[in-house]
Write a structure and sequence with these properties.
The structure holds three protein chains of three kinds. By secondary structure, chain A is mostly helical. Chain A has twelve helices and no strands. Chain A is globular, with a radius of gyration of 24 Å. By secondary structure, chain B is of the alpha+beta class. The longest helix of chain B is centred in the middle third of the chain and has 18 residues, at 169-186. Classes of the chains: A mainly alpha, B alpha+beta, C mainly alpha.
């Protein structure tokens, strides 16, 4: 007799077998990545079983390398510039598409999202041609230009989802109470969108920090960290310190992603108050 | 010339795509009155209100606020303040800061600011709620915070966009009385948008009835109900029976008409009436009476098709021979045994005072 | 504000701006629009132009010619590497979407609590360094890598398995791992959107669980599946890192040829023509695939 009720409650429920699959899938996603930190502590030049013993010398070696530190600084600089510029552009753009009705809007947003659908190699050579045509020397600046282009769609997507459903009467109320559009932005919009801005900056930073191919095409004398790592892969004796470096990068980016997601969730309940 | 705080001259608002939300509106709002914009959703009343507030701008025409043309004045420089339908309580600020929002740029001393906000809190009976956040307030409290936040700016005109729509029925009725009282106390012009005709009738000095972007009639509540100027207004405000009729004769202030099911009947004449003209005669359900025995005055015979008992009154649908739509009749249940005589299918008599009929050109 | 009877140009402009949503919208949108036109649209147009030019020594002859395309189409090695690229990307797409669908289904229909934790767990790898993830597969699959050394020290094999690394299947595994999040999110979104009462209605009309899936859930999730497929197929056809790290001679893909033409041989026009031909062919294949899938699903009644 209880069967119809259960059937209705569990409509579409896949049952336990799929749960096992899901766990296996997560293992497939995470285990390969976990080998980096595991072997970064292994006291052997070879990345192979059996593990030889615990050591932190690869970390010491990695962080004693001046070239690595210069590449790290370069990546941090490029990441900071790209994430700030992309977030400002994305914020203005997201504001425009969520607040106003414009003819040709979908064409414009489509163009902005296009880099997500184009193979990076194409973006790389196209930007190389542009940088060459503008006679900009290949440098960290040219890399930053490429990263801004790459990060903007991410920033725009994060901020559009944040601003979507933003009760526009909040801004109207502020203007109605005598604030200019500029002050309205600072007193109402900005505080409410702040979590989205932080999230967008973090995610753009990660995208830029991890980006290899564009940097590879647009690099000058000073490589970014991923380009530096790429150049180290040719030397087998550098492998353990690359593992150490990789492990640090992976863990830091995981933390940043979780932070970004947490910040993004943070404000969503609060925002709904205005709509309710 | 009357003291008009708002003059709306030939205002048309056309949205992208060609829809005319407001079509050539022309009217004035007097200083200190409680003015309502009434109409079904999509009739343009909110667009009109938002144009006064400065959130939309007319495609044609001009709105004068206190004598000033407003086309170039953005919302933040207008002497109007608004209570939003969603209340738009800033979620990142508490009640105190919400109410103080519009005062911050006036560079008041801290003491003066606190004094005025506390005064406002007292006015809306929320003393001690200053540190609450928006999400800790009930719908009625949020509505009052929105009201205080707008009134503390001492606007020349307060605009209210369906401010009671989100409240439940009982609270809404309380707030109607409170709002009306408040308006009398502060003496500020209120422009009130609503789709609820009873709300508009009970609160307003004057009401503009809108339909499909057009202002159909502007009048006081009583005139709007008793003397609507068109079939649209008559049927939007309350219930009404419409009788298609032909004018047979006009005799001074009295017209003789003929309509299907009614034969010949009399009604007060209106200007420009000619014999032979087609016209609609209208009468409110409560102005018809139902009797089991033949009455002496004007009447028609019919049978009861359906009845609904509503406690204080009953509604009947009475079928009249020769007429398609049944007549709607409302009767106050003054006697406990009142309705017992009127069972379905029973033959009855519907009678009325000829002066209760309204003639409407269509 | 202005009492003058004939409003000046500035006033009229101001009135237009206040009145027009589109003007305000485009004013806000213009910085990002201009950036993307300069950094994306213009370079792509220049890339197309380049493909019709000729490299002569260190300079470029800008006379328009289709000679580069003829060169690309006439060279068998480009045909080979192009079709290998398509084959690899198709396999990657198939594997990734095939694995991601049940995963997304589980999160959409099976997970009741902490859905967002699952979603974050599934998206974290997407944000972590792609280079490092490809690199870890090199470490795992290598001749002296994790799998081989692990199997040897467990005593299961005596000689390292050579077929693990430097071939197409290594490329497929690595890319399928790298693009997992691209597949899960669109599929999840389209599954999550499905109104659960549709399934109840189908059950009410006599469908079994399998029939409900096949007749309701799957067709309604198709936009997500197609989106995921395109989002994986197109970028992987241009992948450079993975074939370089784990592909070996038989796992090479077209991005390598393009990179060589641009950075080593310095024949940009030929590189541009190769890139454009590949992109055009990929575009045509995608349109054909999406159309075919939509027609196929329309057969489900």
């Amino acid at each position: 007799m209880t069967k119809p009720i259960r059937a209705a409650k569990r409509m579409g429920d896949p049952g336990g077998l799929l749960g096992l699959f899901a766990i296996a899938y997560l293992l497939f996603l995470y285990i390969p990545v976990l080998f980096l930190p595991v072997f970064s502590f292994n006291d052997s030049i070879f990345v192979a079983f059996p593990l030889k013993g615990f050591t932190t010398k690869w970390y010491e070696q990695a962080f004693a390398d001046d070239d690595m530190l210069r590449a790290l600084t370069a990546s941090l600089q490029v990441g900071a510039v790209a994430s700030i510029v992309a977030t400002i552009l994305g914020l203005l753009g997201a504001k425009a598409v969520t607040r106003y009705q414009m003819p040709g809007q979908s064409l414009v947003t489509g163009t902005i999202m296009l880099p997500l659908f184009i193979p990076e190699i194409i973006l790389g050579i196209a930007l190389l041609i542009l940088i060459n045509a503008l006679s900009i020397p290949l440098s960290l600046f040219s890399i930053a230009i490429g990263h801004i282009m790459l990060c903007t769609p991410f920033a725009m997507a994060v901020l559009t989802s944040r601003l979507d459903g933003f009760d526009k009467s909040l801004e109207e109320a502020s203007m109605d109470l005598g604030e200019t559009p500029w002050m309205t932005f600072w007193r109402v919009t900005f505080p409410l969108v702040l979590p989205g801005i932080v999230s967008s900056m973090l995610l753009s930073f990660i995208v830029s920090f991890d980006e290899f191919l564009l940097s590879f095409f647009l690099q000058g004398q000073q490589p970014t960290l991923p380009v530096f790592i790429w150049s180290q892969l040719r030397f087998p004796n550098k492998l353990p310190s690359v593992l150490a470096l990789g492990a640090v990068i992976l863990i830091v980016s995981c933390l940043l992603v979780v932070l970004a997601e947490w910040v993004r969730q943070l404000g969503t309940d609060e925002r709904k108050v205005g709509v309710a | 010339m009357a003291d008009n705080i708002i003059r709306i001259e030939n205002v048309t608002k056309q949205f992208a795509g060609g829809v005319k939300a407001v079509d050539n509106a022309n009217f004035n709002i007097e200083r200190g009155e409680f003015f309502s914009l009434l109409g079904p959703s999509g009739c343009g009343k909110t667009t009109l209100l938002r144009m006064i507030a400065g959130f939309e701008f007319p495609t044609n025409g001009e709105i004068y606020i206190d004598g000033q043309p407003s086309a170039l004045i953005p919302s933040y420089k207008r002497p109007t303040n608004m209570v939003f339908q969603s209340y738009a309580i800033f979620p990142h600020l508490n009640v105190f800061d919400n109410i103080a929002y519009g005062l911050r740029k006036d560079r008041l001393s801290n003491r003066e600011l606190t004094r005025r906000v506390n005064e406002a809190l007292e006015m809306i009976k929320l003393t001690g709620f200053g540190s609450r956040r928006g999400d800790q307030l009930s719908g009625g409290q949020r509505q009052r915070v929105a009201l205080a936040r707008a009134l503390i700016k001492r606007p020349k005109v307060l605009l209210l966009d369906e401010p009671l729509g989100a409240l439940d029925k009982k609270l809404r009725e309380e707030m109607q009385i409170e709002l009306r009282q408040l308006q009398r106390e502060v003496g500020i012009t209120f422009v009130f948008v609503t789709h609820d005709q009873e709300e508009a009738l009970s609160m307003s000095d004057r009401i503009a009835v809108m339909g499909k972007g057009v202002v159909l009639q502007i009048a006081g509540p009583k005139d709007l109900y008793e003397a609507p100027n068109s079939v649209e207004v008559a049927s939007f405000i309350g219930n009404i029976n419409l009788i298609d009729a032909t004018v047979r004769a006009i005799n001074g202030g009295e017209a003789t008409l003929e309509g299907p099911g009614f034969g010949q009947f009399k009604a007060p004449a209106i200007d420009g009436l000619k014999a032979g003209q087609k016209i609609t005669a209208a009468i409110r359900p409560e102005k018809l009476s139902l009797t089991a025995s033949r009455p002496s005055g004007t009447h028609v015979e019919g049978t009861i098709k359906a009845s609904a008992y509503l406690g204080d009154r009953s509604h009947f649908h009475v079928h009249i021979k020769g007429r398609e739509t049944p007549l709607s009749v409302a009767a106050q249940n003054v006697d406990r045994a009142m309705t017992t005589g009127f069972d379905p299918a029973r033959a009855v008599y519907v009678s009325w005072d000829p002066r209760s009929l309204i003639l409407l050109k269509s | 504000m202005t009492a003058s009877s004939a409003p000046g140009f500035a006033d009229r402009l101001r009135a237009f701006y206040l009145r027009s949503d589109a003007a305000k919208g485009y004013a806000l949108l213009s910085p990002v629009m201009i950036t993307m036109v300069v950094l994306l649209a213009a370079p792509l147009v220049m890339l197309i132009l380049y493909s019709f030019w000729t490299q002569s020594g260190l300079s470029v002859d800008t006379t328009l010619t289709t000679a580069r395309y003829q060169e690309v189409l006439g060279k068998q090695s480009y045909h080979d590497i192009f079709w290998r690229t398509i084959g690899t990307s198709s396999l990657v797409t198939l594997v990734t979407v095939g694995l991601a669908y049940p995963m997304a289904y589980y999160v959409a229909f099976g997970v009741k609590k902490y859905k967002f934790v699952w979603l974050i767990l599934l998206t974290i790898p997407f944000w972590t360094s792609y280079l490092l993830r490809a690199f870890s597969w090199k470490v795992i699959l290598g001749f002296n890598g994790v799998i081989n050394s692990g199997l040897i020290s467990a005593g299961l094999i005596t000689e390292p398995l050579e077929f693990l690394l430097y071939n197409q299947s290594a490329v497929v595994i690595t890319l399928a791992h790298a693009y997992a999040a691209f597949a899960i999110l669109p599929i999840y979104v389209s599954l999550e959107k499905i109104d659960r009462t549709l399934l109840e209605a189908a059950a009410d009309l006599g469908d079994s669980a399998w029939a409900r899936f096949w007749r309701i859930t799957f067709p309604l999730s198709l936009p997500g599946v197609l989106g995921a497929a395109v989002l994986i197929f197109v970028p992987t056809t241009g992948d450079y890192v993975t074939p370089q790290l784990v592909g070996g001679p038989t796992g090479q893909m077209i991005a390598y040829s393009i990179q060589v033409l641009f950075l080593k041989i310095n024949d940009w026009p030929l590189g541009a023509a190769l890139a454009m031909s590949a992109m055009a062919a990929v575009g045509i294949l995608v349109v054909l695939f999406v159309t075919a899938m939509q027609l196929a699903v329309r057969q489900i009644r």
